[in-house]
Amino acid sequence: xxxxxxxxxxxxxxxxxxxxxxxxxxxxxxxxxxxxxxxxxxxxxxxxxxxxxxxxxxxxxxxxxxxxxxxxxxxxxxxxxxxxxxxxxxxxxxxxxxxxxxxxxxxxxxxxxxxxxxxxxxxxxxxxxxxxxxxxxxxxxxxxxxxxxxxxxxxxxxxxxxxxxxxxxxxxxxxxxxxxxxxxxxxxxxxxxxxxxxxxxxxxxxxxxxxxxxxxxxxxxxxxxxxxxxxxxxxxxxxxxxxxxxxxxxxxxxxxxxxxxxxxxxxxxxxxxxxxxxxxxxxxxxxxxxxxxxxxxxxxxxxxxxxxxxxxxxxxxxxxxxxxxxxxxxxxxxxxxxxxxxxxxxxxxxxxxxxxxxxxxxxxxxxxxxxxxxxxxxxxxxxxxxxxxxxxxxxxxxxxxx
Amino acid sequence: xxxxxxxxxxxxxxxxxxxxxxxxxxxxxxxxxxxxxxxxxxxxxxxxxxxxxxxxxxxxxxxxxxxxxxxxxxxxxxxxxxxxxxxxxxxxxxxxxxxxxxxxxxxxxxxxxxxxxxxxxxxxxxxxxxxxxxxxxxxxxxx
Amino acid sequence: xxxxxxxxxxxxxxxxxxxxxxxxxxxxxxxxxxxxxxxxxxxxxxxxxxxxxxxxxxxxxxxxxxxxxxxxxxxxxxxxxxxxxxxxxxxxxxxxxxxxxxxxxxxxxxxxxxxxxxxxxxxxxxxxxxxxxxxxxxxxxxxxxxxxxxxxxxxxxxxxxxxxxxxxxxxxxxxxxxxxxxxxxxxxxxxxxxxxxxxxxxxxxxxxxxxxxxxxxxxxxxxxxxxxxxxxxxxxxxxxxxxxxxxxxxxxxxxxxxxxxxxxxxxxxxxxxxxxxxxxxxxxxxxxxxxxxxxxxxxxxxxxxxxxxxxxxx
Lengths: 402, 143, 314
Ligand code: SF4
Ligand code: SF4
Fold this sequence. Notes:
- Chain B is α+β, with helices and mostly antiparallel strands and about 140 residues long.
- Chain B contains three helices and five strands; from the N terminus they run αβαββαββ.
- A three-stranded antiparallel β-sheet of chain B has the order 2-3-5, with no helix packed on it. Chain B has a two-stranded antiparallel sheet with strand order 1-4.
- In chain B, a hairpin with a 2-residue loop joins strand 2 and strand 3.
- Chain C is globular.
- The mean pLDDT of chain C is about 85.
- Chain C has one domain.
- Chain C contains 13 helices and no strands.
- At the B-C interface, helix 1 of B face helix 2 and helix 12 of C.
């Protein structure tokens, strides 16, 4: 059979969001993959530049439906650093708590999606049923199941009461038991293992080279976790170990996520035990932020979230730039798919826990201004020259994809 | 570690005789947490027309219009509203609150505009209704 | 007179009307149990029927590049083959409608036809996903057919007949010999899962990989007929397994035998639902590998056992 090119997406049952993977096949084997972004560009960064910081926070919270708290916290952390705003300790801990609850929500959801991509809908139904428990907790604390809106500039919006803590404490043993069960299923169900192990391979070196992040990188044994490497919020005070796995395939990524779930329960226990007393936010809402710029990193459930913010002394931001974890992981996906089977496309793509809408961006090439259009080689030459002037020789670094 | 197919068989058989986890939603009403942020309700008698809510609304969903001397009406575009309840936090006079009302689907955009009338011209804003009432029906006129 | 009886058999019982009703019931049992295994509520009893009627009312779209005649005829061919197969399977006592010496082979071949129509349908659709599904359908056919046939032949070998009714009579006289075919029964159940294209062998219609697979381009009435044919195939497949591997209680009153027949088929459908809920979908090459490396030796073992046993069998 001659090579055929099958479009997986932008409309395809395996993808919950529009994105296109053009897969070239030789029979069932993949010989080439091309990714096209940009079907769901929402112009969020621009929208934020036109709004006040108070408003932008809500817009950015909606970058992603699952890691909503991650984006809003990441943004506010950057604004607070740029504007030198002090955040009370209790508020930091509350933000951390919501972030970790969100991780449970996200990882359980992922496990179900992975099951579904493999035709194992039973796993989907069970994990999503158990996920309801954490959704209920989040709703109890914040009012709503997603988009918790628990942040304000310089603090937390709502307090954690003793009743909340009691409810969380009550739920933890259930989470632990269920997660241990899923860990056993993932490690013992042979049809599942057959579909997971050896699939979507990405060696440690490749993971570093393609700049994978989050569980995708950790599943290849790359010891990277922003919570430990660049601790933010309450993490400097919390004890935990980075979960690693060296299977370097989809199976490894699954084990990392399950391991992280177990660890998150410990973290949550530490947080509700050690929640400091004090105010949860500024006495009066902060609107104006001093000029400055900052980059903040946040270990979202899907990987490292990066926000760059430039403030200008008004109540608006001059510029905000979002780097969602998926964008960092996408180049690695091409590598993971090459040489694999068509049947593995859904699970390999799902294994980075992609969020395409969060990632999408539009590029407009402005030719009319009389500027040159630079191709990759020209950019590369420029970059090498740029760094050489500063005493760094990068000529030997191989460019990806060539 | 031993692995074999059909690892979940015990779990499946056990659950097949148990109560399903399904909630019979429209028949059984959803259980909402008390901090739930649903449709925003306007208490016209309290509004002083400072328009802070309009300033802070991220999606331009709330509009306060002056109807007469110290009388203000409010329009909320439910299709634009993202139910963040920032307006509720912002309002200095507690003239807004979030209800438990979430079943807001409609067939037209017009049906998603909620108008809350200003108080009648003669009425003095003396006895505003009890604050913090969170009923799902909505007390405001035009709800 | 003969014509009337034949028409009755083809259209009413055990033909179209009975099979389609029972097919919908079987689909309901399958879906309900599948849901209950997943701790869900599952559909109400009329759901399969409602789905069928709804599909009938939908617009039928035929791809511009497809051969319209072939495209339209295939669902009917699939259904006709399945209904015909039913005439050779004993339903109300140990006799079938059209039984003759060698009908087991005919049934087996008739049940291959639907799979071939799936292949042709996918191919005729001229769509990438459908063609992919078609190729997978055929690849899978070669993998599960052989173990399935061998498993089905073992009990026949033991009873020294190729006729389903003679077999039924033989096992009614010697019921204990049924147990000799247990291994073959297991092989057949697993292989049937492949024939019906259900998890873990739903590879030809793997939704997350190739959209609707073979049926991607089918819609409306044609899809309804295909789906009905698949439901019927589930019933006939289960009935065949019941006739070959569970031939007990056939000497009773016809009504009782009929009730028993329904119970056996539904039991097999329930078993299939459990299997469907238990596994992840295999990849096509894993499936072929599994069939040749595990199912095939198991079926061979059964045959060997049968050959040995038939030396002592009455
Ligand atoms: S913030 Fe409150 S008082 Fe001010 S205009 Fe809005 S509703 Fe009225
Ligand atoms: S809830 Fe949020 S989006 Fe809705 S009107 Fe209030 S501020 Fe605007």
